[in-house]
Amino acid sequence: MKTILVTGALGQIGSELVTKLRAEYGADQVIATDIQKKSDNDVVNSGPFELLDVTDAKAMFAIAQSYKVDTVIHLAALLSATAEAKPLLAWNLNMGGLVNALEVARELQCQFFTPSSIGAFGPNTPKDNTPQDTIQRPTTMYGVNKVSGELLCDYYHHKFGLDTRGIRFPGLISYVAPPGGGTTDYAVEIYYEALKKGAYTSYIGEGTYMDMMYMPDALQAIVDLMEADPSKLIHRNAFNVTAMSAAPEDFGAAIKKHMPDFTLTYQVDPVRQAIAESWPNSIDPSAAQAEWGFRAAYDLDRMTKDMLEKLSGKLF
Ligand code: AKB
Questions:
Q1: Cα–Cα distance between 315 and 196 in angstroms, integer?
Q2: How far, in Å, CA of 43 to CA of 215, rounded?
Q3: Pocket of ligand 1 contains residue 116 by CB under 6 Å
Q4: Nearest to 170 by CA among 135, 209, 200, 139
Q5: pLDDT tens-place string over residues 190-201
Q6: 232 vs 241: CA distance, rounded Å
Q7: Mutate to test the pocket of ligand 1, among 94, 169, 241, 283 (most ligand atoms within 8 A of CB)
Q8: Does the pTM of the predicted model rise above 0.90?
Q9: Which residues contact 18 (CB under 8 A, 6 or more apart)?
Q10: Which InterPro entries match (predicted)?
């Protein structure tokens, strides 16, 4: 039986991952933590919840020790656009939080997971079918954090024998908790605005391709990787995964199949556009497929149908 500490539990991934982990391993086995407490949130009310600032190493250790956790899932981080606006805060939070979480895992001998991102790649990375092992010279603070994080997790594995595992997530799309401060957030906003206004103005330009994935596939990937036989893992930090490579007009066309009057226009934000252009168009997930059986169940059309159904139930 696992006892799992989750940081950033009220964020985009955490809000749904905690629910899934509680269903799978038992509500009391998943200790959700976040820097804020929203008392009407299901994550806060469906099992143990503790307030935690991940830059506070002692507080993190005390919570982990008191619940006798054996697994740490460290999600708390600033996303790419916010990190670019506040680079020093991003370094302190993203790297400080990560090293604290790794230290907790080392001292308590826990299994460890933290997400990396397509942001760990940069402008001189091969853009199409980006290999698992390739050039990683990102030009954003978020990317610098993600590459450093991948290396640090590998270091803890080699140096201390810690069971560290990670995934390079593409843009994640979900109808539950909104993302905040990411470059790929447009791919979530477009569904909300389609339903609310029948129109969306994209801050990412036409023809800009990035990898994307529906949240249920991302959550399943985390569980599958954490359950994977360690003897089969050649890589650890972190695996390329993707479900689709798409540009704004592809989302527009998929939405139009359900809402023929939907209109998509563009007003490009130069900061987020530059970040997007420094990232791959499409990444190669074959290492994840070979080493732990990764597969995505949702393509763009299946995801769009589900997003529109679930979101309209939520909004109206
Ligand atoms: C972001 O846009 O910052 C994130 C990511 C791809 O890591 N969604």
A1: 8
A2: 16
A3: no
A4: 209
A5: 999 999 999 999
A6: 17
A7: 169
A8: yes
A9: 6, 9, 30, 32, 43, 46, 47
A10: Epimerase_deHydtase, NAD(P)-bd_dom_sf, NAD(P)_epim/dehydratase
Nearest to 80 by CA among 236, 215, 279, 242: 279
The residue whose two tokens read 């605005």 is 193
Q: Do the Cβ atoms of 93 and 76 come closer than 8 Å?
A: yes
**Beta-ladder partners of 239:** 167
pLDDT tens across 72-123, in order? Answer: 999 999 999 999 999 999 999 999 999 999 999 999 999 999 999 999 999 9
**For residue range 232-273, what is the model confidence (pLDDT) as tens digits?**
999 999 999 999 999 999 999 999 999 999 999 999 999 999
Q: Which helix (H) or strand (E) holds 52?
A: none
Q: Is the ipTM of this complex over 0.90?
A: yes
> What is the rounded distance in angstroms from the CA atom of residue 295 to the CA atom of residue 284?
12
Residue nearest to atom 8 of ligand 1 (CA): 171
Query: Which tokens is 182 given?
Result: 């990411």
- Dig out the tokens for 42 from the structure: 């299901």
Q: Which helix (H) or strand (E) holds 34?
A: strand 30-34
Q: What is the DSSP string of 137-182?
A: ---SHHHHHHHHHHHHHHHHHHHH---EEEEEE-EEE-SSS---S-
111 C-beta closer than 6 A to ligand 1: no
Helices (H), the chain: 14-25, 42-45, 57-66, 80-85, 87-90, 96-108, 141-160, 186-197, 215-227, 248-256, 270-278, 286-292, 300-315
Cα-to-centroid distance, 76 and ligand 1 (Å): 13
